[in-house]
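Q: Can I see a sequence and its folded structure?
A: Here is a first one.
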Amino acid sequence: LGQIVPSQAELQAFDRGARKEGLVMVCLKICPNNRCPDESVGFGLIKRNRGKLFITIDGKPVTAIKKLEGCHFMAGEHGLKWSGQAGTGAHDIRFRITDPALEPLELTISSIVVF
């Protein structure tokens, strides 16, 4: 599953002309009483169980997650900053969940914010 963030419509509606820093933050749905269903996948699967959750930004792998309260900054081989698409500051963000033994798995995202 992938998406360009922000979309053209979001850029037209919200772009204030400020320079983008290249930071990408993803916020996950908060489960009631911190008890998520068994089929829910969190960002911990990137570190603990390689092979279950893959995230790429602009074709480059996310290699680390920096948590800030209920949200997470995505980091790659060059740290927290991503180059984005020339002139727009938009990013192609892709998520792939793989584990045939546990399908269907789900990653429930509440928001993606680009700074």
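Q: Show me another, different protein.
A: A second, unrelated one:
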Amino acid sequence: MSFAGQGSRPSSGNSSSGGLNNRFNSYQQGGGSYVPPGMSYANQQTNVLEDTVKTHYQAEGTAANVLTQMHAQRHQLKGAHDDVWEMRKATEEARRELESLIAKNRKKKVRLYAIIAALAMTDLFLFLRIAQCRGSFFC
């Protein structure tokens, strides 16, 4: 049986059992769908509506799962951001401590060079004093 203006090609399956994968029986595909004997157009539209509602609930379930996953990923990213921020602060503090240690090291080197220079001058003065007194420290 076919309606006026519709082709008589057979359907590729029952639209209520196809679910999401049976898109070729969609009522939006055009007027060429086959209505089997004993099944009215209203029943066919009811099946299409049931499939649509089923698809809607499946889409809502998928959306809820995606939202849950995105929420978990948001917390992971926020945790990673906080970890990076803490690492930056720790790195900055370590850099400041290293600069402080380098400055202290330079001051110690300058102080040691000053002590070396003072001891060298004392040694030179004592050497000249011994040379001037011909081997005796007291002239």
